[in-house]
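Cont'd.
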Amino acid sequence: MSDLEMPPAPACAFASDNAAGAHPLVLDAIVRANEGHALAYGSDAWTAETEARFRDLFGPQATSLLVWNGTGANVMALAAMIRPADSIVCSRWAHIAVDETGAPERVLGTKLQTVPSLDGKIVPEQLLELEYLIGDQHHAQPGVVSITQSTELGMVYSPDEVAALCDTAHRLGMKVHLDGARIANATAALGGTVDALRSFTVDAGVDAVSFGGTKAGMAFGEAVVFLDPELARRAKFIRKQVTQLPSKMRFVAAQFNALLHDDLWIRLAQHSNGLATRLYDATKGIDGVTYDAAPQVNSVFPMLPAHLIEPLQAWCFFWPWDVTRDQVRWMTAWDTTADDVDRFAAGVAALCAAG
Ligand SMILES: Cc1ncc(COP(=O)(O)O)c(C=O)c1O
């Protein structure tokens, strides 16, 4: 294999949508916001506009608070949702459980209760299985369920699935948090409209959303959107306590204003989702590549011959996923091109053919 002549590598890697830069319109917005002085901590015109945009998206009762990053958004949202002695229920794949270095446990002093899942989704029956804990003083009390949309394995909950989870959670006295680091991709997958966004959030009964900006095309910044007004009451204090209050907030807000203008966030997600499907179509027939499922958003999760993973990564980088199954993740971003995908698929085919 060392003599194998690989085709030209793609211009961009398939590591993550986080590996992409910021969209030019987002960068322009930062530059345009860099005029003179504006009051700090959100008392500026850009933040007022962002808050109005989020109310347009989710309804007049929605309260949005801008934060620095996705882990911070999740920690802050959850901090506003839990009561003393509560636990947070989530899938075993949940970013809050496996990729946040224990931040929710450390910062909130809470217990994360993970439940099994193959694709990152959880179902109402899994909440019902925990009902026996409620009221027993020896157990943390399931107080919040956190779901990820789209999931860490690139799957999308239907609006009905989210509504069923919310119904069960609320009947059990639990709140529902949605980690929407890739909410743009889920919205695009479910129809690409504001109604689609509402169908699996506010209409389904979700109480709070971590709304992703960075993966969607921003340089940094996310929002926590409280759909249950009661949860928002003390949120601004909690944001500061968990170190997520940006002082020059206008630069986060200006980015969101650019991204949310004219549905740019949805259009970029439609683009990256479409290229994941193109990648799946171009690789699913290659001998040695197998898939559990077709992509629903901007990532594919193939199983590869184990000995080919490192050479392929050396040629064009991507992350391993479930190492017990030789499963990897190839992820597209707002700036991935069809040419990148075709070159990458050609490289996969060349390596697999060489064995
Ligand atoms: C599902 C999910 N939630 C949240 C995050 C946010 O993480 P960060 O703190 O790196 O912005 C990510 C980033 O990879 C993610 O994939």
